[in-house]
Design a protein that fits this description.
By secondary structure, this protein is an alpha+beta fold. The protein is built from five helices and six strands. Helix 2 packs across helix 3.
């Protein structure tokens, strides 16, 4: 019986170590993890070019959107407790006007690491105003967000999508099942140049 207790303690210590490592790595707001404004803009340019090339519906949305918030590189990792993190840029008329960070936490049966990007198309002024005035917007509260899949994105027209916020998730890589942006908290940041 004592050997079972020792094994259980080893398991608990390992689990706690993994959780602490995860928290320190992904949730500490430390400048070592923060991208510069020029790095964010460069990644946003590449992400938008790829998205428009591979999804004509995204290009259609962009033409009518009041603004576009692009998170080109979100890292998601977890082992029972998980999280995702990434920086992005808000663009109006093709120019960056602000920078934002997307952070989310989750728990449950999960293990792995993956990366992806997502773009939010703000189709009306009230949705955009909510983002700009809030001290942190949690997706799932405030303006409604509709996540568009690649198939639907090919059939978009500017007359069908005029209000709210539409999201495209793209460039998925890694070994973790499921990608979601619901519950992501988006806050404004001021990165270094």
């Amino acid at each position: 019986m004592p050997s079972i207790i020792r094994e259980f303690k080893k398991y608990e210590i390992t689990k706690i170590s993994i959780i602490l490592f995860f928290i320190l790595t992904f949730f500490v707001n430390h400048s070592a993890f923060a991208a510069s404004a020029s790095e964010i803009n460069s990644k946003v340019n590449v992400a938008l070019n790829d998205l428009y090339k591979n999804s004509p519906g995204a290009s259609t949305l962009a033409k009518d959107a009041k603004a576009i918030l692009v998170f080109p590189d979100i890292l998601k990792a977890g082992f029972i407790i998980g999280g995702q993190y990434g920086d992005g840029a808000l663009r109006k008329n093709g120019k960056t006007v602000a920078y934002y960070r997307s952070v989310a936490a989750s728990y449950g049966l999960q293990a792995g690491v993956q990366s992806f990007g997502y773009v939010l198309f703000f189709m009306d002024s009230s949705s955009l105003s909510y983002l700009e005035k809030s001290k942190g917007w949690e997706i799932g509260s405030g303006p409604s967000v509709v996540v568009l899949d690649e198939g639907f994105g090919k059939k978009l027209s500017s007359t069908t999508l005029q209000k709210g916020v539409y999201a495209f998730i793209f460039d998925q890589k890694g070994l973790m099942a499921g990608i979601g942006i619901e519950g992501s908290k988006i806050t404004r940041i001021t990165p270094d140049n």
